[in-house]
Write a structure and sequence with these properties.
This protein is an alpha+beta fold. Helices cover about 30% and strands about 30% of the residues. It comes from Mesonia aestuariivivens. InterPro entries: FixH.
Amino acid sequence: MKKINWGTGILIAIVCFISFIMFFIVRMSTDKKFDHDLVTEEYYKQELAFQDEINAKQNSANLVNNIHVNVDEQGIKIVFPAEKKNIEGTVNFYRPSSKKLDVEIPITLENQQMFVAAKTLVEGKYILSVNWTSGGESYLYTEDLQIRP
């Protein structure tokens, strides 16, 4: 029986290591359990609109009465400032763990309030983002929410 010299041993070790790494690369890229997405689809487009977002957040922070959010077992109640009229925009529930659980709802008010039923969202962490306009001014309100059953 022939002995394996040190050159052949190193070559076998390198081939085994590369095979091991390739196995995990293929497994991680094909298995749905390890579904990795970008944070946002249009990252560069969103980055260009960043100054508008800063201005809208500042407008929201300058309000005497800002948006108030109440979370309970029935759902989420979003109360808009009474002094603002003709409110339009969207309410976004961003789920950091999966974009499939993100929810975007147009603002529909009844007595300056909007209600989102609990069954609309899955249990877990969401980032609430209310992007709205009133009187030609843009506002952006954000808050972290924990949805419980």
